[in-house]
Fold:
Amino acid sequence: MDDYRGGLPMSDVPSVSAWAVALAAIVAFAWGGIYFAAIAPRVERQIGIEAGPAVTAPAALIAALITRGVLAYGLAVILAYADVVHPGAGALGGLAVFATILLPVQVGQAAFNNATSSWRRLAVSVPELAIGMAIMGAIGVFWR
Structure:
């Protein structure tokens, strides 16, 4: 007698391509490097944030790459459950996850910090993460 009472057994977790996840994480990481090296300093000057350190510690870069890997994998699984196969739909899925999960967390964190600079820093970081999620969503649907 089958005692299955709903939910998904582990065998039903959709498979995703490790290559697609790795590529999505690396490209999103590279986009973040370009954004924070070339675009963010200009945005910071425009909104009145003093420039931070020009060199990022290697440990911070490693952490950023690992977190991109975790995000890319989770997003690829979500998009696989939704049966998304087109890169355009994957990009929209990445933006949807950003708008409904990541952005509210960032706004909540900024709200608990009374400094005006936290809202300014949020304004600087949002474009990088939003576009990064779109990139990961577009690439993460490949090779399934």
